[in-house]
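During the reporting period the student researcher (J.K.) took over the structure-prediction task from the postdoctoral fellow and processed the backlog of single-chain submissions. One of the processed entries is reproduced below for the supervisory committee.
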Amino acid sequence: DIPFKITQDNGSGGMDIEWVPETDTFLIVWRGSGVFEINRKKEIIWSYETNAASHDVDRLANGNTLMVWGWDTDKDDPQVTEVDPKGEIVWQWFANKHLNEKPILQKEGFTHANSVVRLNNGNTLVSLRNFYMLVEVEPSGKIVWKLPNLFTTPHDPEILKNGNILVNTRQPQVIKEISPGGNIAWQ
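J.K. obtained the following structure tokens:
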């Protein structure tokens, strides 16, 4: 039961839900409609309507919201967008301005970015499925670190306490722990 109006339903529905512990609310990405924050009474308490949000959304410590656009059909689309509580765009990242590589896969968007994580150092980790790559991006947009060609279709990277990255890959379905240097610590 969806407690809000869907402005566009392309059949894929919701792509991500995140619990916001500080407010005991939920952030939901509804592809084609935007990002919605709902409370336990199923009331929308905040929204950012856009067709350019699809896979992952996070509420940052500063109150801003970070989201990815994985169904980017145009190389000029932003893959990552950060908006403030008023819905004003405060930061965007465009892969085509910083990647020289060509995508390995060419389906379901240019990059098919499917996950974004704001790191403790202020940089942003982005999972680019069609490039088989994770990238760490500075606030300026410059890529400071890449993890290319180690696996297929990466999804949902998570930074572990030891600094390694836990990432799920698909086709084949494998979970890997990878060091920042690119070595597989466990799979």
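The committee noted the following: The longest strand covers residues 14-20.
J.K. will present the remaining backlog at the next meeting.
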